[in-house]
Amino acid sequence: MAPSLLKAVGAVAVTFAAQTSAAKSYKVSEVYNSTNFFDKFDFFSDTDLNGGYVQYQSRADAESLGLVKYQDDQVYVGVDHTQGDYLPDGVGRKSVRLESKTVYNQGLVVADFSYLPEPVCGSWPAFWFFGEPWPTKGEIDIYENWNDHTFNRHTAHVDVPEVVGDCILTANDMTATIDSPNCYDFADGQSPSQGCSASEYSTTFGSTTGGVFAMEWTEEHLKIWDWLHDVAPVDVLSGNPSPSLLWGLPSYTIQSCNIDKAFKDMKMILNINFCSVAGQTEKWEESCASKTGYSTCTAYVAKEHDSFEQANFKVRDIKIYQLAEDQTSTSSAASSMFSTSSIVSTALMASITSSTALISSFSALISTQDVASSSASSVTKTSSASYNTASSTVSDDNGETTSLSVVSPTVSVSATTTDASKITPTSSAAELTTSTIYTTSVHTITSCPPTVTNSPVGSVTTEVSVATTPYPVNGNSSVSKLVSSSSASGTVGPTTILSYPIANTSVASTAKTESTTTLPIADTATTEAASPATSCTGAGCGVVEVGAGMKTHASLSLVGMVVFLLAL
Q1: Do residues 164 and 255 touch, judged by C-beta distance below 8 A?
Q2: pLDDT digits (tens, 9 = 90+) for 84-104
Q3: At residue 203, what are phi and psi to the nearest 5 degrees?
Q4: What is the mean pLDDT of the chain?
Q5: Which of 121, 205, 239, 511 is exposed most, by the fewest CB atoms within 10 A?
Q6: b/e burial code for range 219-228 (CB count within 10 A of at least 16 → b)
Q7: Considering only CA atoms, which of 226, 227, 223 is closest in space to residue 263?
Q8: Which domains does the chain carry?
Q9: CA geometry: angle at 319 spanning 313 and 321, to 5°?
Q10: Whole-angstrom distance, CA of residue 199 vs CA of residue 177
Q11: How far is residue 224's CA from residue 213's CA, in Å, rounded to a whole number?
C-alpha cells in the first residue's frame, strides 16, 4: 500500500483520538471594554500604600480631569500632564489606580492594549493582580517597570513556604531572565520584599502600538505570554484561545509550589504611580539623575508635567476566560442509540439498520483505490472534508439496505461492509452492535528472478485485513470470533478464537478479509501473523515479513466506544 495513504490513515487515527479526549475549552466569562470598563472597577483614592508621589483620584475627579475616558471605542487611562506647579515635598501628581470589583481564582486573562506607557523617568506603570491581605493571598505582575527602563519586569510575592511550599523560578520554564528566583519576600540571599523577579527584554514594553498579554492561572501553574499584534497567535486574536506550543515558551512561569494556596482571591489592578521604587536613590541615579538634571525623582515629577503626556494606557479590551464543557457535541450521527450528550468529541458514529442484523464497520480511508466487495454486497464511495458528514448505502442481493454516516476530519472515505448473509444470530436481541478487527502486515521484498524488470527489491509493502462481527449490546454472555491468517505460501494459518463477555445472546460470524488499509489503533491489540503481500511483477519473488500483523477490536456501541476511546 502506498506510504502516503498509510500516513494519511495514521493522521486520521491520531486526530480522532485527540478529538475524543477533548472535553473542555476556554470560554469567555467576562469582558472589559469601552462599553463597561470603568463600571467594572473601583477607583482607589486613598494614600498610596507603596509611598509613591501620587494622588489617586476618584472616578468623578478622574473623568473631570480627563485622566480616564472612552476614546474611539477604546479605553484611555492616564495621568495629569497639564500642571507643573506641584510641590516636591507635597502629596504628588494626580493619577488613577483601578481595582476590579470582581475577585478572581484561576482562569485565562487576555489583555489587548493599543498603546502602552512611554518609559519615562519618575513613572511606574503596572498591570497586575493581588489578594488581600498582601502577600498572604499573593501578587503577580503582568506588566511593570519604572523610570526609563525599556524591558518588562515580572514579579510575584507569596506567603511563607510552610503554607505554600517553595515557589521557585526555573530558567528552563521561561524566556525572561531571572533576577531573583524565590517568591518568598524574606528568602535568604534576596532583598526584603524582592519576591521572584524576572526581566523580559521583549518589544512589547512601552510599545506605541501596544501588545497582547495573556496569563493562564490553573491549579498547577501561573504562566505569562506577550506578543505584538502582528505576531500574536491566531486563536488569541480570534477570541478562541487555547494555550499550546504555538504560543511559544512563556516569558514567566511559576509551577513549583501549591498554586491554589499561593494565589487566591485576587483583584485585577491597572495604575500609574510616580517615584516610590523609581525614586530610590540607587535606581534614580542609574540614568535619570543625569538625564533629567534633577537630583531627586519628586523634584522632577513635580515640575516636568510635559514629560508624562504619553505615560498612559490605551486598552481595546480585557477578556477573562474560564474552562467550560463544550456545549455542542462534536459527534455527527444518524443513530438514536447515541445521544449528543453521551460523548463530547468528534467521533465516528454509525447506525445501520437491516431486517437480518445490525451491522456497522469502521470507515476505511481509501480515496483513490477500489475496495473488494463480495457477491452479496455492493459498495458506494463517498467523500467528505472539514468534519462534514458523508453517507453511504450498501445493498445486498435480497434487497436489504444498509445506511452509514461517517464524520471525516479532512479526507475522503469509503465504507465497506461484510457479507450479511454469513451472519447468523442464534437468538433475537433488542439492539445489536459490531466489533471490527484490523490486521496489518509489513513485508520487505528481498529478491526477484532475473527475468523480472524494474526489480522492486528492498520495497516495503503493507497489507491490512478487516473483519467484522455483530453482537447484542446488553447482557453478560460472550461472542466468539474466528480470525484466520495465511502464510507466505498461501496455506491457511492458525485460527485464533477471540472471546469477550458483552451480550446475553451469542452471535456467531464468519470473518471476511478485505484488501483494504488501516493502522493499528489500540494498545490492547492481539498480535499474530497476517497474510503477506508482494508487489513483485514476476514469479518467484522472495518476501520476508518484517512486521507482525496487529489486530484490534473497535466496538461502536456506546459502551464499546468508551472502551475503545480509553484504549486510545
Answers
A1: no
A2: 989 999 999 999 999 999 999
A3: -95, 0
A4: 72
A5: 239
A6: eeebbbbbbe
A7: 223
A8: 24-325 (2.60.120.200), 327-567 (no CATH)
A9: 150
A10: 5
A11: 7
Chain-centre distance for alpha carbon 562: 22
Residue whose grid cell is 520554564: 173
What is the grid cell recorded at 487? 502464510
DSSP track, 180-202 = E-B-BTT-TTS-TT--EEEEE--
Bridge pairing between strands 93-95 and 54-56 = parallel
Q: What is the helix, strand, coil percentage profile of the chain, to 5?
A: 15, 35, 50
Q: Of 82, 125, 79, 53, which is closest to residue 294 (Cα–Cα)? A: 53
Cα of first residue to Cα of last residue in the chain, in angstroms, is 24
pTM (2 decimals)? 0.58
Q: Which of 199, 191, 206, 210 is nearest to 252 (CA)?
A: 199
Tens digit of each residue's pLDDT (9 = 90 or more) over 180-191: 999 999 999 999
Hunting for cell 490486521 — which residue is that?
Answer: 439
Strand 381-383 relative to strand 412-414, pairing: antiparallel
What distance in Å separates the CA atoms of residue 317 and residue 227, rounded to the nearest whole number?
15
